[in-house]
């Protein structure tokens, strides 16, 4: 090997990072070293907005309100009422009649809720519908008229069942 080429290869190997020639490390002998040009960046042109004229708004005259005088009312005397010869009606007293609670007639047969004269399953269904409520009257299943539909009314229905 030529000593001169040997020296160049060693020199290139040691300073390859400085020279930025990394491919020379792997090469055995380079006949000539050429520098590669790094492409330079060319600036990109950004289009600049062009100025456009915005139309100026035109002024439209607004009508000014005109002042109109309102006439002042004149004072005229108000006529006094003349006495009438017809008598003024007097209110008639109203007598309020309060509604009275008319007791429901008891059916002929105790335990008969629908008043058909028979104590049967229909009467039981009426008693069952109102069971546990505070309501008075045999038509609601309160056969003893104590104001509550309860077991005592059921016993009255049961003791008269089939009549």
TrEMBL record:
Ranges of biased composition (kind: Low complexity): 34-57
Regions of compositional bias (Pro residues) in chain numbering: 74-92
Listed InterPro entries: Dockerin_1_rpt, Dockerin_dom_sf, EF_Hand_1_Ca_BS
Keywords carried by this UniProt record: Signal
Sequence segments annotated as region (Disordered): 34-92
GO biological process: polysaccharide catabolic process
GO molecular function annotation: hydrolase activity, hydrolyzing O-glycosyl compounds
A Pfam short name: Dockerin_1
First and last residue of the signal peptide: 1-20
Protein name, as recorded: Dockerin domain-containing protein
Organism: Candidatus Amesbacteria bacterium RIFCSPLOWO2_01_FULL_47_33
């Amino acid at each position: 090997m030529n000593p001169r080429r040997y020296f160049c290869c060693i020199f290139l190997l040691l300073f390859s990072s400085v020279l930025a020639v990394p491919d020379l490390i792997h090469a055995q002998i380079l006949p000539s070293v050429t520098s590669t040009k790094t492409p330079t960046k060319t600036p990109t042109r950004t289009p600049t907005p062009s100025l456009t004229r915005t139309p100026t708004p035109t002024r439209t005259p607004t009508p000014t309100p005109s002042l109109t005088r309102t006439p002042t009312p004149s004072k005229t005397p108000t006529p006094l009422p003349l006495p009438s010869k017809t008598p003024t009606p007097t209110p008639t007293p109203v007598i309020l009649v309060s509604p009275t609670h008319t007791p429901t007639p008891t059916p002929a047969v105790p335990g008969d809720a629908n008043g058909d004269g028979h104590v049967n399953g229909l009467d039981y269904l009426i008693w069952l519908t109102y069971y546990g409520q505070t309501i008075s009257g045999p038509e609601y299943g309160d056969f003893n008229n104590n104001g509550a539909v309860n077991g005592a009314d059921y016993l009255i229905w049961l003791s008269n069942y089939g009549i």
